[in-house]
């Protein structure tokens, strides 16, 4: 594996701002981001990548590669939490196993954005329809996690905590991040189809501001991730090992699926990153509300305090090396 891509990734402004945020906590700086701003930047990033993704899908059209890739993305988001659940059951009860497995079956939009920035820095092309995979992979893992609880939880669970399928589907498909991402995707598609001048008007907002907003958001994520690190002591060595092993394992499966789909290097990396990332927003929100028996410190601390920084700093260049090794250009 070449070391240069790792150094280039670590020295990229978004990663550096993430590290600066983490270091500020470790050295007890009084740096603080006002609470509403991270939420605002999170919504902005989802809107921007959804809008740009919709434009790119309209431009590329629904080719023979688009639908199989989107189908494979949904399949992976159904399969990964099942594998994670089976592994976690060796150590945890049904509730914690299902909640943690759902977090690792879902995705991190910020990790996806960082992978896009990495590809742009390496001048590797990728297609906008991969944003569709991002949008489609967030909800299925939540559904699987909640269904695992529904069918595997002890029969004497209080009636007040029993879940109805309609509530599960509503929470999974209409949570704020999924709704905004899918809506922005449709707006971008319709704008590119019927009102191209609207793209130029939106460009300063969704294009030129994007990189700076990403850096600022990652600065806050660095602070939050470092604040979560002490809680990892309570997670135990099994869960800490799982937080590193599971992304690598999922990436390994993802790269072979990408090869089967004949994805190019750029699209393959984005697909692998989606498989290897873990949710620290949508899934925790759903699990806190519907599975209160699960300890939030487990699935939030590991995804945000360990898996997220691992993927941002080291994972992405490692996955790129994996893609280049298993999907040589001659096979495309």
Automatic annotation (TrEMBL):
Pfam family, one: Sbt_1
Keywords from the named record: Membrane, Transmembrane, Transmembrane helix
Keyword Transmembrane helix appears in the UniProt entry: yes
InterPro entries in alphabetical order: Sbt_1
TM spans (from-to): 6-27, 39-55, 67-87, 94-113, 133-153, 173-193, 205-226, 238-262, 268-286, 298-322
Keyword Transmembrane helix applies: yes
Protein name (Swiss-Prot/TrEMBL): Putative sodium-dependent bicarbonate transporter
Organism: Prochlorococcus marinus (strain AS9601)
